[in-house]
Amino acid sequence: MTTSEPGDAKRPTRRSSNPTVHDVALEAGVSPMTVSRVLSGGKNVRLEVQERVARAVETLGYHRNENARSLRPGHRSGLVGVTITNIANPYYAEMLRGVEEIASAHGRRILVGNSNEDADLEKQLVADFIGRRVEGLIVVPSSAGDAAHLQLERLGGVPVVLASRAVGGVSADTVLIDDVEGARTATAALLAEGHRRVAYLGQRSVFTGRRRLEGFTVAHEALELTPDEELIRVGQQDVGSAERAMTELLDLADPPTAVFSANNRNTVGAIRAIVARRRATAGTGAGGGGDDIRVAGFDSFDFADIAPVRLSIVDHDAGDLGRRAAAMLFDRLDGGAQPVEPRVLELPVTLRDLF
Amino acid sequence: MTTSEPGDAKRPTRRSSNPTVHDVALEAGVSPMTVSRVLSGGKNVRLEVQERVARAVETLGYHRNENARSLRPGHRSGLVGVTITNIANPYYAEMLRGVEEIASAHGRRILVGNSNEDADLEKQLVADFIGRRVEGLIVVPSSAGDAAHLQLERLGGVPVVLASRAVGGVSADTVLIDDVEGARTATAALLAEGHRRVAYLGQRSVFTGRRRLEGFTVAHEALELTPDEELIRVGQQDVGSAERAMTELLDLADPPTAVFSANNRNTVGAIRAIVARRRATAGTGAGGGGDDIRVAGFDSFDFADIAPVRLSIVDHDAGDLGRRAAAMLFDRLDGGAQPVEPRVLELPVTLRDLF
DNA sequence: CGTGTGTTTGGTAACGATAACAACCCGGCC
DNA sequence: GGCCGGGTTGTTATCGTTACCAAACACACG
Fold first, then answer.
1. How far is the C-alpha of A291 from the C-alpha of A285, rounded, in Å?
2. Is A151 exposed, middle or buried (0-12, 13-18, 19+ CB in 10 A)?
3. Which residues, at least 6 apart from B219, have a Cβ–Cβ distance to it below 8 Å?
4. Mutation to test the A interface, candidates B82, B97, B101, B275, most A Cβ within 10 Å
5. What are the boundaries of the region Disordered (chains A, B) (predicted)?
6. How would you classify the pairing of strands B258-261 and B232-234?
7. DSSP state of A181
8. Which of A155, B66, B192, B242 is 20 to 30 A away from residue A31, measured at CA?
9. What CA–CA distance (Å, rounded) separates B184 from B190?
10. What's the pLDDT tens digit per position in A102-160?
11. Is A101 on the interface with B (CB under 8 A)?
12. Distance of CA B22 to the CA centre of its chain
């Protein structure tokens, strides 16, 4: 386009839209093919031409259209879809960072969706991701609703890795936390200290909740004890409801002397309730009471170490969960021929005393 | 094409790859065009044909290729790019959720990248996002390095909204927390209580840190006071270093009677140092000392309300930050003709006394 | 029965990029 | 001079989808 003939009105100048290889080619006085060649390494292109093209790219602010590229056969989209039940949960945020880290190292970008524990929304997200030709999916499956949309054949052959939770009826690569063992160890520690009335705060409807309750029960059974049903509270979703549940427990005629909580929201709620009770009884001069309730909880959280109670935490690395899940996915994507059987990985946890 | 003639070997059956409109058309015995019509609403297509196509879609597990669709003129990619300096930071995670919420409501998906405070990485992310034809960008700019890549003309006209931090030399829509006012109010509250030696714990290299220090200073100047340089500590990145800095302050000949900290890590560190000192002096029977150090801090955190000191918090909503940034972006994308001037929004903060 | 109106359907081209092929240029060799 | 091989460049066709046009069809009305 050094000289602008009146005849070449084929492509009217469109300043607004993104420039294409064609525009760059005009600017550099070469063919689109040559531009393409320069952009993919410049093999077999004269140096002088390469420089001319580079200048044109710079001048026009050209960016290769990846969507168009991914259209060509054999080309990959470079995208991985991630659906999470709640991005704002620091635990999943940390996991997401792990996924991003590995994806980035493999030259992929991540598409993120929030399923909000809604299977329908999750289904839409997955369908949309497949429509965008993601190469793979990492899914924290929602606890509610059926999961038929995660069947391999429904995904058009796109590999999926389930993270944090398994799904009945779906056989796919899965990375889990060792929920049962974590809950068992923590509960066993409380029992070993002599506590015999240990409460449980958690969930039963969610996969991890069920497993953690199982660990709680197993620890009791190992000592031929049976947990008191009255001390088992399930269904608290947030800190507020957890605090109320703990307060109820403290109000019992025969209150617990220790509590195991199955996630960080419940732990924080329990600690709040204990501290509130401590302040109230301190005023009456009663002294003892809720003061020395022992707490053990699954998941770490910010500033757990300044909690004003004797606290142990079942710690696990969310970032590692994400990295492992992503690694599993890229193993299938970039690794050679794979075994077809899905693999299940259970990540270990550690019990930390924070006092 | 119900009967398969030997001659029609044009498109060999490819079970492995994703089916296309063409495949669906063959299956349903119609033309690709008709399939396309059915998929976009089915206007002017016989009901019987629509059902046939729907069945074929179901049978083959067809998903429209969004990348191919977005190629067509006038069509949008439905993507928004988000770069964050640290996804794992709960504050930005919450922000991300806000962005996702609004994006989702506008029928868009989000591409997420972690810049890790690295301007080069951020630049690559932005370039890649533009290559994928995102309709807009939401960027938490990295504090280090230059930001030429965020210039509007460099972005090929893709609108960008800066979140949480502004960037010198870049004029773009920006959503900020009202750092100056938050720090000013909190500091003013401490001064109003009669404190005259108020320490500052925070940062000076980061945008928000500078602004919060400014608010701290302004509050002093309003009362014709000058903050003691000795009481200003900057550069603490984590709880540990903040605790050490606070301990140093307590060891001064003329220690502060109150402290304003510019973020939650510093607040927690300060509280730790104060509590440690209190325990130490309690043993000596000294009584007073670090006992009644007053604390005010930016950012909330778990257990802020049960902290064992007189604490005020400058509270702000990260989710709101994300929602506002996204709303600003979609205002430009979906709203009609816009004013060209970039807008800057400063979100209000509230001072909460937690005692 | 012819014409007009409206519905349903299919062919063609284009979006942006690039493999595959073809064409060209150049120097070196017989 | 004519031919060959290597480097360089351009042309064509294709990826999956859909807007636009044209064709085919149904039906009503004069």
1. 12
2. middle
3. B183, B184, B185, B187, B188, B191
4. B97
5. 1-21
6. unpaired
7. H
8. B66
9. 10
10. 999 999 999 999 999 999 999 999 999 999 999 999 999 998 767 778 877 778 889 99
11. yes
12. 42
Within 7 Å: CB of B16 and strand D? Answer: no
Angstrom distance (rounded) from CA A203 to CA A259: 14
Interface residues for strand C (CB within 7 Å) are A 11, 17-18, 20-22, 32-33, 36, 39-40, 64-65, 68-69, 71-72; B 30-31, 33-34, 37, 44-46, 49, 68, 71-73
Encode pLDDT of B219-248 as tens digits: 999 999 999 999 999 999 889 999 999 999
Average pLDDT score over residue span A202-217:
94
In one-letter notation, the amino acid at residue B181 is E
Angle at A250 between CA A244 and CA A256, to 5 degrees: 120
Check pLDDT > 90 for residue A287. Answer: no
Question: What is d(CA A26, CA A13) in angstroms, rounded to the nearest whole number?
Answer: 11
Show the 3-state SS of chain B. Answer: CCCCCCCCCCCCCCCCCCCCHHHHHHHHCCCHHHHHHHHCCCCCCCHHHHHHHHHHHHHHCCCCCHHHHHHCCCCCCCEEEEEECCCCCHHHHHHHHHHHHHHHHCCCEEEEEECCCCHHHHHHHHHHHHHCCCCEEEECCCCCCCCHHHCHHHHCCCCEEEECCCCCCCCCEEEEECHHHHHHHHHHHHHHCCCCCEEEEECCCCHHHHHHHHHHHHHHHHCCCCCCHHHEEECCCCHHHHHHHHHHHHCCCCCCCEEEECCHHHHHHHHHHHHHHHHHHHHHCCCCHHHHCEEEEECCCCCHHHCCCCEEEEECCHHHHHHHHHHHHHHHHHCCCCCCCCCEEEECCEEEECC
CB B295 within 8 A of CB B311: yes
Of A127, A306, A319, the CB nearest to B271: A306
> Domains in chain A, ordered, with CATH?
1-64 (1.10.260.40), 79-177+319-347 (3.40.50.2300), 179-315 (3.40.50.2300)
Give the per-residue pLDDT at B336: 65
